[in-house]
Design goal:
The protein is an alpha/beta fold and about 250 residues long. The protein has 2 domains: about 150 residues, SPOUT methyltransferase, trefoil knot domain (Alpha/beta knot, 3-Layer(aba) Sandwich), CATH 3.40.1280.10; about 80 residues, tRNA(m1g37)methyltransferase, domain 2 (Trp Operon Repressor, Chain A, Orthogonal Bundle). It contains 9 helices and 10 strands. The protein has a 5-stranded parallel β-sheet, sandwiched between helices. β9 and β10 form a beta hairpin. α7 packs across α9. The chain is elongated and about 70 Å long. Bound molecules: 6-[(cyclopentylmethyl)amino]pyridine-3-carboxamide. The site of 6-[(cyclopentylmethyl)amino]pyridine-3-carboxamide has 17 residues, from β5 and β7.
Length: about 250
């Protein structure tokens, strides 16, 4: 299985830098991941390679022009592959792990339009974009980091991308709750000992402890996640008990 992304940006190096390290680099080498990065300036027609202009109605900052983006999308589409065209912006649908899971099954290539400046000409939304996505309620200087967040979170879900040691199978977020606490050597650090159960070698007890700690943390730090999570009967028993003894 391989997932394909196309990216339109005025800063292609941001992608080359992140994709040439670690797991995403390996995913590219092993052909689980294909990313093609296009420089928006290559799709301009004036000699200054202009991608922005003053806002109609006045005001601060510049607006990204519609034509270069439209031309880039048309040029990329000439290979006749199916594509989902995504624009990153704070006005988009809030991205989460469930969307990452859904998009990791996507048969189409995913094309990201990464904007800069104060905004993108509204007609890009109307004429080009299939989906507008936000990675969180904050403003970035460009869509590039948001696109990388999505590429990263989807790619690590592709079977084979992570080694068995890094697998997402046991990941708490795969059932919608927070991760359990992790420890490594030394057994005592700053007077704090690693919980005995983790040194016991009893894998059944270790699993039970981790599940309980994950649920405890979620109840404490992100109670909003509990309702949407995929907990089983045993988990609900743990949850009830934790609620009764107020997280002891
Ligand atoms: C996406 C893009 C935040 C997000 C962005 C987000 C670039 N900021 N929360 N900034 O996913 C004006 C033109 C803002 C593009 C956009």
């Amino acid at each position: 299985m391989t997932i394909g992304f196309d990216v339109i940006t005025i800063f292609p190096e941001i992608f080359h830098a992140y994709l040439s390290e670690s797991i995403l680099k390996r995913a590219m080498q092993n052909e689980f991941l294909d990313v093609k990065v296009y420089n928006l300036r290559d799709f301009t027609t004036d000699r200054h390679k202009t991608v922005d202009d003053y806002p109609y109605g006045g005001g601060a900052g510049m607006v990204m022009k519609a034509e270069p983006i439209y031309n880039a999308v048309q040029a990329i589409k000439t290979d006749a592959l199916e594509r989902l065209i995504v624009m990153l912006s704070p006005q988009g649908k809030r991205y989460n792990q469930t969307m990452a899971e859904t998009m990791s099954q996507e048969k189409r290539r995913i094309l990201f339009i990464c904007g800069r400046y104060e905004g993108i000409d509204e007609r890009v939304r109307e004429c080009v974009v299939d989906e507008e996505i936000s990675v969180g309620d904050y403003v970035l200087t460009g869509g590039e980091l948001a696109a990388l967040v999505i590429i990263d979170s989807i790619t690590r879900l592709i079977p084979g991308v992570l080694g068995s040691k890094e697998s997402t199978k046991e990941e708490s977020f795969s059932w919608g709750i927070l991760d359990y606490p992790h420890y490594t050597r030394p057994p005592k650090f700053n007077e704090i000992k690693v919980p005995d159960v983790l040194l016991s070698g009893n894998h059944k007890e270790i699993s039970k402890w981790r599940r309980r700690e994950a649920i405890k943390r979620t109840l404490l730090k992100r109670p909003d996640l509990i309702e949407e999570s995929k907990l089983d009967r045993d988990d609900y028993d743990i949850l009830d008990e934790l609620r009764r003894c107020s997280l002891g």
